[in-house]
From TrEMBL:
Annotated ranges, domain RNA polymerase sigma factor 70 region 4 type: 104-153
Gene3D superfamilies xref list: 1.10.1740.10, Winged helix-like DNA-binding domain superfamily/Winged helix DNA-binding domain (1.10.10.10)
Name recorded for this polypeptide: RNA polymerase sigma factor 70 region 4 type 2 domain-containing protein
A Pfam family that the UniProt record links to this protein: Sigma70_r4_2
Domain of life: Bacteria
InterPro entries in the record: RNA_pol_sigma70_r4_t2, RNA_pol_sigma_r3/r4-like, WH-like_DNA-bd_sf
């Protein structure tokens, strides 16, 4: 089969085919589909350990392709990265966020870990909130609440709290 033919396969089919053949030509489209989203997610969660975590993840997949047990490969990937991030507590994340030039990145880094994770998985990785809830092992309702709260907190951190009408009037006088 040509590489172009593999582009038509779903992630799960590609993984199954890779498990059988161990061909890098099969693995390459699978890797290319997910590497950027995983990187963006990891770099915002643990900037200094992103490369090590992702390298270990992809090497593990190459050596021991996972059994998905009905789960989507994309969801499985983010579950694995999430587990690795939880195990690898990065003490430098807070100080890196403070020295960052980007207000958005700094605001994201200030969010509580669960809110940050929900926000990034949904916004950066384009996962549905249902998938994020599955990854985080929380209810969909709770996931929505964390997502909305994270967005509100980022807006507050970037733009400050909104002026209260009574404060605006007091300033005018």
């Amino acid at each position: 089969m040509s590489r172009k033919a593999f582009q038509q396969f779903s992630d799960e089919k590609l993984l199954e085919h890779y498990r059988e053949k161990r061909s890098l030509a099969v693995f390459e489209p699978l890797y290319n589909r997910h590497k950027d989203a995983l990187y963006r997610y990891c770099v915002q969660m643990a900037p200094s350990s992103t490369t090590q975590l992702l390298q270990a993840l992809w090497e593990n997949i190459l050596q021991n392709p996972p059994q998905l047990h009905g789960r989507l490969f994309r969801n499985w990937l983010f579950i694995q990265v999430n587990k690795a991030l939880r195990e690898h507590v990065d003490s430098t994340t807070q100080s890196e966020a403070l020295t960052s030039e980007s207000k958005v990145v700094a605001a994201i880094q200030k969010l509580p870990k669960l809110q940050r994770n929900v926000l990034l998985l949904h916004m950066e990785c384009k996962l549905s909130l249902a998938s994020v809830a599955d990854i985080e092992r929380i209810s969909l309702k709770k996931c929505r609440e964390y997502y909305q709260l994270a967005r509100q907190q980022i807006e507050t951190l970037i733009y400050g709290s909104q002026a209260k009408p009574w404060q605006v009037e007091a300033i005018k006088e």
